[in-house]
Amino acid sequence: MWQFIGRRILILIPTFFGITFLTFSLVRLIPGDVVEVMMGERGVDPAMHAAAIHRLGLDKPFLMQYIDYVNKIFHGDLGESFVTRISVLDEFMQLFPATLEIMSLSIILVIIIGIVAGTTAAVKRGTWVDYSVVGLVLICASVPAFVWALLLIMVFSGFLHLLPVSGAMNVLFDIPNQTGFSLIDAWLAEYANPILYQGAFWDACRHIVLPVTTLTLLLISSTTRMTRTSMLETLNEPYIRTAQAKGMPYRRVIFVHALRNSLIPVITVIGLEVAVLMGGALLTETIFAWPGVGKWMMDALSRRDYPIIQSGTLILATLTILVNFIVDILYGIANPRISR
Fold first, then answer.
1. How many other β-carbons are positioned within 10 Å of the β-carbon of residue 56?
2. Last residue of some domain: 45, 77, 109?
3. How far apart (Å, rounded) are the C-alpha atoms in residues 225 and 119?
4. Which of the listed residues 18, 101, 255, 290 has the most CB atoms within 10 Å of its CB?
5. Are the C-beta atoms of 4 and 332 separated by less than 8 Å?
6. 320 phi and psi angles, rounded to 5 deg
């Protein structure tokens, strides 16, 4: 097992450097002049323009800029925003709880709904239940996230007038930012002062429904299909027929023997979905004006704010690598043959 973990750690090193080089290189290919964006395209003095380029270190050769960037990373310095002059890491840590909130709720719903739906479809194979589940998940896989977001806005906000479109909270509620999680902060504020913040928690729940639903619809397909496929294979194994022949209760056969062994490949799929979830959060937060990392990075992209784009991408990519590393370890623990 330790050799298995060691091999996975060695793979992480070139992957990390590859991500730093790609993000640093691709950011420089974005068209536009960052100084003109900062100062305005009209009336930029050439001397001030040159001074700003020198101050930002953009006049150095590409390789020197990359070496400086990597050196700062290993010293814990991810740079500071060209526009706000605030540390990228500080801004990221302030905004990441909001992104983590919708991602966590989405992945929990995906796991619960996907495993239940996939198991039900496998047990009811060949029936209308199976066909319905497969048809619905194929629709979810075929429709892009931004289309789901627009449809949900049209139905639940435009037509039914049930849910708000943007933001994490009504602007009338001046909720203290204690944890960065809108639901927790709203609950704490309402609990501490129920008169001043009456209805704050319910308002936060209403705001979070559409972003979480969009991300859930984006990811539900792969988990459901993998669970169904794995369950169908497991149900045909000899030990399942042996358990049934011994008179073991049907529910115990399904949920203890079949489902438990079917979840091994599902673990891998859930780990891979984290990367898709982070990518979907960028677009979802922008559409719903959710105050998280995704909207922050999209705003930085429009301003050509290089440090935010490259360091934000690096942090998200590193988190994805760590999640996949943990999934690999869990997979090796669940299936010892992998580690051998």
1. 17
2. 77
3. 9
4. 290
5. yes
6. -65, -40
Euclidean distance between CA atoms 266 and 233, whole angstroms: 13
Domain that holds residue 135: 89-339
Q: Is residue 239 within 8 Å of 248, Cβ to Cβ?
A: no
Helix axes 293-303, 306-334, angle to 10 degrees: 140
| Residue whose pair of structure tokens reads 């194929």 in the numeric block | 138
Q: Report DSSP letters for 78-143, one per residue.
A: --B-TTT--BHHHHHHHHHHHHHHHHHHHHHHHHHHHHHHHHHHHHTTTSHHHHHHHHHHHHHHHS
Q: Measuring CA to CA, which residue among 276, 298, 303, 300 is closest to residue 288?
A: 298
What string of DSSP letters covers 153-207? Answer: IIIIIIIS--S--SSSS-TT-----SSS-HHHHHHHHHHH-TTTTTTHHHHHHHH
pTM above 0.85, yes or no: no
Q: How many domains does the chain have?
A: 2
Whether 58 and 125 share a structural domain: no
DSSP SS3 for 16: helix
Tens-digit pLDDT profile for residues 92-141 = 888 888 888 888 899 899 888 988 888 888 888 888 888 898 888 888 88
Residue 196 located in a structural domain: yes
Task: Classify residue 82: in a domain, yes or no.
Answer: no
Q: Are 88 and 312 in contact (CB under 8 A)?
A: yes
Whether 223 and 270 have beta carbons less than 8 Å apart is answered as yes
Q: 87 φ, ψ to 5°?
A: -55, 135
**Do 324 and 225 reside in the same domain of the chain?**
yes
